[in-house]
Specification:
By secondary structure, this protein is an alpha/beta fold. The protein contains six helices and nine strands, in the order ααβαβαββββαβαββ. The chain has helices at residues 3-11, 24-33, 50-56, 68-77, 130-143, 171-178, and strands at residues 39-43, 60-65, 83-87, 90-95, 98-102, 118-122, 149-156, 184-191, 205-211. Helix 5 links the parallel strand 6 and strand 7. It is globular and about 45 Å long. The protein binds S-adenosylmethionine (SAM). S-adenosylmethionine binds at residues 6, 17-18, 44-46, 48, 64-67, 70, 104-106, 122-124, 127, 165. Belongs to the class I-like SAM-binding methyltransferase superfamily. TPMT family.
């Protein structure tokens, strides 16, 4: 997906992916994967409420998001006043233990993630088309520090069911992409809906993985 696609989505507020509440799989699994105090990278973070939950539970948060509008909305809607600083290719919005860099994930370099302990991917990998997703996974594998652990949430649906995003990501792709670098444990797979749209014969499932 080119950046113009996402900027347009944010400008028109076509953000069906945004959830008004904390993701239930984050609540259920995250503290079992990573202990509070850890610095958690949230790639393609949007204005996700999940970042607030992480902060409330004592994690430090580092989000990266293409859309400045998303970052501004995150701080405004949560009545938070960030300090804004230009950092190379990125514009930093920071407040206490929360830092969001506005800019392109693909411009990050290894030193940007040097103090990351963990990462949380909800609707990031599945937001990207196949070739871009491969680059995304490769970059995480190369740039995340050795000890980093992840919680990854993906979706699956049959070929031809709908167009992405969100894209369907099969277990095999997670295995091929992350398997060389991390041990992968699928914690759960259950029926879900895309952006809350329920159909009679719903073929969509959601998977959550621990990467260690
Ligand atoms: C499907 S949304 C998910 C947002 C968030 N993770 C959530 O759960 O609500 C994908 C987000 O990735 C952002 N994005 C897309 N490509 C990006 C890139 N190359 N670098 C940084 N952010 C990007 C989009 O602007 C959008 O906010």
């Amino acid at each position: 997906m080119e950046s113009a696609f996402w900027h347009e989505r944010w400008e028109n507020q076509q953000i069906g992916f945004h959830q008004p509440h904390t993701h239930e799989l984050l609540l259920k699994y995250f503290s079992g994967v990573v202990k509070p105090g850890a610095k958690v990278f949230v790639p393609l973070c949007g204005k996700s409420k999940d970042m607030l939950w992480l902060l409330e539970k004592g994690y430090r948060v580092f989000g990266v998001e293409l859309s400045e509008l998303a970052a501004r909305q995150f701080f405004e809607e949560n009545q938070l006043k960030p300090k804004i600083t230009q950092r190379g290719d990125f514009k930093e919005y920071a407040l206490d233990e929360l830092v969001i860099w506005v800019g392109d994930f693909f411009k990050l370099v290894k030193s940007d993630l040097a103090d990351i302990d963990a990462w949380y991917d909800r609707a990031a990998m599945i937001a990207l088309p196949p070739e871009m997703r491969q680059r995304y996974v490769q970059q995480l594998c190369e740039q995340l520090p050795e000890q980093a652990k992840g919680l990854l949430i993906t979706l699956q649906y049959p070929n031809g069911y709908r167009e992405g995003p969100p894209f369907s990501v099969l277990e095999g792709e997670v295995e091929v992409g992350y398997g060389q670098r991390f041990s992968i444990d699928q914690l759960e797979s259950a029926e879900t809906t895309v952006n809350g749209k329920q159909t009679d014969d719903n073929p969509v499932t959601e998977q959550v993985y621990k990467l260690d």
